[in-house]
Amino acid sequence: MISQTRPAAVRFVGLLLASALLAACSSGPQSQTTESEGPSAVPASAVPSEGPASAEPASEVPSEAVATPAPTAEPTPLAVPPKPAKVTWKQIGSKALPGGETRESYRLAWTAQEGLATTFAVYGVTRCLREAAKDAAKDAGKPCVVKGMKIPKSALKLIAQVPGSARTVDIAWKVGEIGPGPYSAVLIRATNGAGDSIFRIAWSAEVCVKCTY
Fold it and tell me: How many whole angstroms separate alpha carbon 206 and alpha carbon 213?
């Protein structure tokens, strides 16, 4: 019995060894890397996004733009208005009054740019300035007031003042039976908050050296 059992055990061990060797030959070597011929595989979580990594995801609704206030325009400095232009002087009436006096009426008209003057002031010159000169005789028959002449304040009297929108004003004064009227000239100028324009002569009497009244 002993001799028959031992060969069978030997054969069984031989079969086990043969099976182990066969299994070892059929399995290939296990590699720790991927194929060297192709690009290295990158995990899906490591694939870069199309935008920068730090960028916030774009919002479908744009944020409201911050309104920038418009710059405040500086006011234009006020300038002295130019003197009235195209000044005309016309007598529009004459009425006899008791006592031999006459009331004479005149109309003063002019042109001016809109919005520059706040008022127009009309002055009467109370004396003939040329008659006071030492050589007044050579000026006989010439206007009492001419362009460029300096007018003293003591010889000026305000006789009318109208708004800056006006372009005409009527003026009247009394004249006796003899002698001149109360004024030797009539002047007009434009005025606003910055100051007064130079005078424009509307009318002037003539120098009369030997006249007596």
Answer: 15
